[in-house]
Structure prediction request, 322 residues.
Amino acid sequence: MGSAISELPSRRTPLADAAETGLKIVIVGGFGVGKTTLVRSVSEIRPLNTEEVMTQAGVGVDETSGVAAKTTTTVAFDFGRISLNERMVLYLFGAPGQERFWFLWDRLFSGTLGAVVLVDTRRMDDSWYAIDRLEHHRTPFVVAVNRFDDDTAGYSLDEIRQALALPERVPLIDCDARLRQSGKDVLITLVDHLYELAMAQEMTP
Amino acid sequence: MRRPVDTGDPDRLYTVTGGRSRADDDFDLVTLVVSESEPTAGMQSEHARILDLCRHPTAVVEIAAELKLPITVVRILLGDLLAMGRITARHPRAAQSLASLPDSALLKEVLHGLRNL
Prediction:
């Protein structure tokens, strides 16, 4: 510290000085489904990892006895970012779908534009819980099926929609999380969907 | 490959925040923080690092990742700096209510940005 060389080579590119509005989109899915891959394919920075601590009651760092209390657990998540223009920056969060994570939803992801549920057809059960929780939190979402190379079963989107009991109004698309264009398409599908919802709401007196 | 964040000894977190556990909830994950002054000698090292990082607007979550500290701890530190007038915070427009959609004009701008990537 205090060295003349303050700019480390690993330092990420800073945002524009005019940046003023941060936005959030959350990508939810089970372990190994490709959340980080999707974040990486569209992010302008190498995905970073951070975490939040919570007690069993989900109220942050332990109230009385410090963070060393046994009830403290941590939830880790990855994120990347996309500068949309000089003023707006979109943050993409890859979040684990497991139960303890949802205790933190309000604290971390209130105000989220919407969510992407990333599905692996070999482990479709993992997606049920995420879809249920997003509906509970009234967060609009789309479902993207990450087609892995060894996905030999080749379920059609209709079959997947049926298996997930997904209502028609929820967009469902195929993607390849490794490809930038495909990742972009997933995000555009989500924001298009949000736009339609917002327009419908604004038309309603 | 997931690499767990090393937050070190829990006691260290306790020390960093001076034993406080209540975070300033005003700081959203994507609130952009900007330094309003240079770090000064004798300042708590985490405060100094935040001021250093935030010469350009930096989101709360990026500060947490860079400092390898949990979000709650970073919120506490940012609350200190804000109270001292050493940072300003640019809060997200869309983070106010839980179940309401952002307006269509904002979404249109987002769409435009994504399509131009």
